[in-house]
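Homework help board

Subject: predicted structure for assignment chain

Our instructor gave us this sequence and asked us to write out the predicted structure in token form, then describe one feature. I got the tokens but I'm not sure how to describe them. Can anyone check?
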Amino acid sequence: MKSIYIAFSFLIFFAYQAIGQEKLQTSPAARDTTSIRNLNEVVISALRINIPLRQIPAAISVVSGVQANAMSKTISADDALRLVPGVRIDNGTGGSRVHVYIRGQGVLTESGFRGIGVYIDGISINSPGGFAPDLYDVDWETVKTVEVFKGLAASLYGTSATGGIINITTKDGGDKPVNSSLYASAGSNGFWKILGQVDGTQGTVNYRISYSHMQSHGYRIHQSYMADNLSEKLTWTPSAKIKITQSLLYTSYFNQNSEGINLSRYDTVGHTAANTDAIRYNEFHKTQRLTAATTIKYDFAKNQDITVKGFIRMNNYQETSNNGDDYKPFINPGISAQYNLNFGKENLFNHLSLGADYQSMKMTEHNFAVPNGDSINSNRVDSYWSEQVFDLNYLLINQVIRQRSTGVFLIDKLDIAKRLYALLNVRYDYVYNQLDSATVSDSKTFSKPTFRFGLAYDLAKAANIYASYGSGFLVPTEDELYNNPVHYGGFNSLIKPSTSMGGELGVRGEIGRSLYYDVTGFSISSKNEFYRYSVAGRGNNTAFFGNMGESRRWGVEAYISYSPFDFLKFDVAYAYSHFQYTSPDSVKGHWIPQSPEHNLTAEAAVKFLKHFTLTMNVQYESKWYIQVDDSIYNQYHENGIIRSSTERTGFTVANANLKYTWKLGTLGGDISLFCKNVFDEQYFGFTEPNNGPDYNSYQAAPGREFFVSLRLRL
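My token output:
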């Protein structure tokens, strides 16, 4: 901790030196407004209708593209969303493969995350059952804004949104007919990324197209990753009443899987160690995905419009391990329609929306058996990018999984008076799952209505008060359904949907011209919480899911941005999370896994000598628990050490970024030096439960890393 205090003392010294060198400016045009929020001007679209922030009865954080990339090599969500309280992101690879939690929701699935809706330019990346496999489609260098809606949002988006929404908007093209930009970054562990973009406006058409490639050897053994991203967006406005947006996303992502290790291996080999099976079986994940989407907005009458969105997603996924070589290609089309009507008087104005969402998915799974470790060819290819597999000539799994989801919703926003606003959401969802194989056919159906009601009172510029109460509905993901603990094949008949009820109370506002704050308290009670466990005697079939009684989550989230001078800015994001089980008695009072009690991010940025910006950041996370129940441990021994708890100690990590910005005629750009984990803190970036002889699984986070980045804009 002393080193962190020294770092911030150095930053404050720099700030005072800058005061003597920079002329103080107070005009709004000169101020860096990426953190100071004008509640009258910030308009939010995450609630499916455009609403000024001051009128929204919900906790929402807005991150600009400038903020997202201020301290990042522009590849991962944990860097981009570092200043959003209540959001925790586990990055066990250093790349783009992450697990996301909002207010404790989204806790570990077998892969990806659930209960959090992710939208890119209004198009969902979640499956019909609400499962988000990854964030590979997001190229953070192309992001314009991110809106994070925290809390029960199922009444707006369905089962994918019990924990909240991450609404990502990518950049539009520039005003000139043709603009171009280049981004390049390189650094530790063989990392490099390059992105080229062309954009502009030609008459009624605005366009942007970009392509990027990145790769790294990884900081652990057998942890390389490589990705290609193509992002295309075109908006045609043929008249004042019609707007058509077409987009195309292509992603190819390959990553070796070093997997988690037990503490014995960590103590023996160190933080770069891979699981003993990882290299032997050349374990890796490979994703290739194409998403094409079109959005049409038509203002067909005064105060009336309709928006229709359609997409089709094609995905090839492969995962190889000592459990088998698994292929899961799927096709996922979807469509949604929303009708908006605005009517009423000045002191009672109504914004009414009616809509429906529909998605379907067909996934074909083939899991080939692999030989045991002693039978694998000793002459196998062992390289960073090897895709060699060891398939035997028979299948462990040969099945087809189909999903359909339908949701109908109503949104009603009332401007009750000049400063009082009400928002009501009501929704009904129906989710159908079907499994077919040569030996078994099974189906599962889930359905439920959800609601949310809130009030916002714009008391003054310094105090915008909001409160809400609502319900959530979370269904099992595909993996949780077809991993059947009773017998091989068929759906898990023991698992049930999880339901939630909860509310929040918050206040946000601006004090003077330099301080913005947002503080929210919340409480959520859930039934049939999901958890992960193992079944003895099932061999390689190790991950099963069930329901663990009831829980109560309550906490406080706070964000403060203070800019006393135009060249100096401080940001602090803090979340207190008290997440515990309330039943059954066997786990009552136990903490929900992966949920630290304290999360704090503090950041300071100072501009000096006109062209330089120094940003320093500290991230603190307190201890967390891995297992639902500590009693499975029974104080076993490893290397002479007693392992008697699933508790993991927290960590404190410091980061720093120095950026130089210039402009020469029509050419502009910046160059930056980014140091991640300045003091080389050793900690675990990701953990998961395992009730077998290895007990828990740990993935060490990277130590100190350096990256240099260059942006050119023409």
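Reply (TA_rk): Your tokens look well-formed. For the description, you could write something like this. Residues 3-36 have pLDDT under 50 and may be disordered. That's the kind of observation they're looking for.
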